[in-house]
Each structure stands twice: as C-alpha cells, then as structure tokens.
Amino acid sequence: MELIERATTVLPDLDDEPNHLDHETATTAAIDAWWALSQAPTLAWPSAAPMTTDQTRELAEAIADFVLVVTQAILNAASKSTDPGDRVACLQAAHHAGRLHAALK
C-alpha cells in the first residue's frame, strides 16, 4: 500500500488533463488503506502471542497469494509502460516477487 501511495503522489505531474482524475482522493484512499492494514493484529510486529505452526503456514500462504496478485499487477503495468526503464524495473520486481512467492510456499 505504501508503494501505491507513493505512485499516486506523482499522478498530478504525469496527467495532461488535471481534472481527469481525482488525485487527492486517490492518494488519501491509499494512505487510509495503508493505515487500515497497519492495524491488523496478525501483522503487528512483534506479535503479542506466538503463532502455532499451522497459523504461521496459513499466514505465509495468504501472503504468497497476495504476492501473486501484486505480481500480476506489476506485469500488467510493465506491459502498458512506454518507458523501457519502467518496464525493466517492473520485470525485475516481478522476478523478485516470484522468488518471494516460492520462498513462502
């Protein structure tokens, strides 16, 4: 969510039609989403109570599933980008996300 927040902050500089998107609302929503997730007890660091092996495995699987969704979005962004540097960065990020996914499985 933090990356999405950072990405939305540059939208006003990139948009040729300033009234096309509600940039302020998008950035605020991204910030709110980040804060909402930061309140999840399971994601608190360090955890208040130790997790069982099964709970840890379930959390790792949920994170791995989330990584796949994010990777698909990154690959979609790469396919739509006209900047070669952006495409390379997206493909590198997708590669690392794939390694992350494999490590969590």
Automatic annotation (TrEMBL):
<protein>
    <submittedName>
        <fullName>Uncharacterized protein</fullName>
    </submittedName>
</protein>
